[in-house]
Design a protein that fits this description.
Length: about 425
């Protein structure tokens, strides 16, 4: 039992090289919640960058060399400064815009304002457009043709609906069209723009009162992917060691939490060892208590790798709890063994420990059913750690201790 258990645990120890800490706070939230779903959708847009890194330059004139280094990095998709809000190549672009304005701006003349179409006009236009889509998609297969036929059916359905339905459709669709037309109108009135034309409120976001300039760096790839964020932060910090921002902050927070729990674990083991020595007065008995505890911790971490469950800000709290609960179970067996109890597996002590552990595991394990991923992972790891601790106490520890020292005073319960 002892040799086989230790052999299996040690054979699985290389798995610990794949143990990692998930520092991404979004992974602790359900992707079905509106806030998380919205930010994940925004991250898919190239124009809406999230998880950016910020760098401070002494002034705006000092930014070009830094920008040049950053833009050569494959991990970087875009670099922005205040100067990025000034359009480049204006001498070539403005004549093109002015030519387009001479053709399109008359369409926005208020004197050309037409009367809005009646509901009957809308019905006729919907039916006409539906017929055109159906004619185009006739005898054609493929997704495009299927979508055209579906759109034609929807248009006919809207045309046949009550006037209130079409009014609701206008209220839903026309504001966006008006916004796009207004943007087009304003864009056709473009004029030469310089740095001095940038609004003061926007300027203050990029230039500090003492003249320092902000450089914003966006990642290449999925900004919610941990590996992308790790490589992105490393690459940018090689260029600018003082860089900061969400990708840097969450990784540093994760490292801080991991180091804190390692320190807490070491302090806890030392404290437990001292207390055990005060109570047991034998180094060997202290080891007989700690070895099963450490074995349970090792196996628990190996299982997390096997089931692909990384540690995170929520479930890492299970590890110190396992130390406290685990040592309580094991000291019961050591004290009974020292008192001469035999057949520990069949004893009332084992039944008491079993039901106590199962009660605790059920209470903590109920968190596993939570819809909150962070809380669920905490319950899952607590349940796993309690089961491994129980197995180490009930199965491994009695075999490790062997026959009681006080064989003459042997007891069965």
């Amino acid at each position: 039992m002892v040799v086989g258990t230790l052999a299996i645990a040690l054979a699985g120890s290389p798995l610990l090289a794949y143990l990692h800490f998930d520092f991404n706070p979004l992974d602790l939230r359900s992707k079905k919640t509106e806030a998380v779903a919205t930010i994940l959708d925004l991250q898919k847009s190239h124009d809406t960058q999230t998880n950016t890194i910020d760098i401070l330059a002494p002034n705006l004139e000092a930014t070009p060399p830094i920008i040049a280094k950053l833009e050569r990095l494959p991990e970087v998709s875009r670099v922005l400064t205040l100067a990025s809000f000034v359009p480049p190549d204006q001498d070539q672009k403005l004549p093109i815009i002015q030519h387009a304005a001479s053709i399109l701006l008359p369409l926005f003349d208020p004197n050309r304002l037409l009367n809005p179409p009646t509901d009957a006009d809308d019905v006729a236009a919907l039916n006409k457009a539906a017929d055109q889509f159906s004619k185009t998609a006739q005898n054609v297969t493929g997704k495009g043709a299927d979508d055209a036929r579906r759109l034609a059916d929807l248009m006919r359905g809207l045309a046949a609906a009550p006037p209130q339905t079409r009014e609701a459709a206008r209220a839903l669709l026309l504001p966006g069209l008006h916004t796009m037309l207004d943007l087009l109108h304003h864009s056709l009135e473009a004029k030469p723009t310089g740095r001095d034309d940038i609004p003061e409120g926007l300027r203050r976001n990029w230039i500090s009162a003492d003249g320092q300039a902000l450089i914003e760096v966006a990642p290449e790839g999925d900004p919610n992917n941990n590996e992308v964020m790790i490589n992105f932060a490393k690459a940018v910090k090689k260029v600018a060691p003082g860089a900061t921002g969400e990708p840097v902050a969450v990784q540093e927070s994760g490292d801080t939490v991991v180091k804190a729990f390692i320190q807490a674990g070491i302090v806890a083991l030392i404290s437990i060892s001292i207390l055990l020595y005060i109570v047991l007065r034998r180094v060997t008995d202290v080891l007989l208590t700690l070895v099963p505890l450490l074995l349970a911790g090792l196996v628990t971490l190996e299982i997390t790798v096997l089931i692909d469950m990384p540690l995170n800000f929520a479930n890492i709290i299970a590890l110190p709890l396992m130390l406290g609960l685990g040592v309580a179970f094991k000291i019961y067996f050591v004290m009974a063994w020292r008192g001469g109890t035999t057949n520990l597996l069949q004893s009332s002590l084992t039944r008491a420990v079993f039901f106590s552990a199962m009660t605790t595991a059920t209470a903590f394990g109920s968190l596993w059913l939570s819809h909150h991923p962070g809380t669920s992972s905490m319950g899952k790891l607590l349940a796993i750690s309690l089961i491994t601790t129980l197995c180490a106490a009930v199965l491994f520890q009695p075999a490790l201790m062997g026959p009681p020292r006080q064989s003459g005073a042997a007891k069965t319960t």
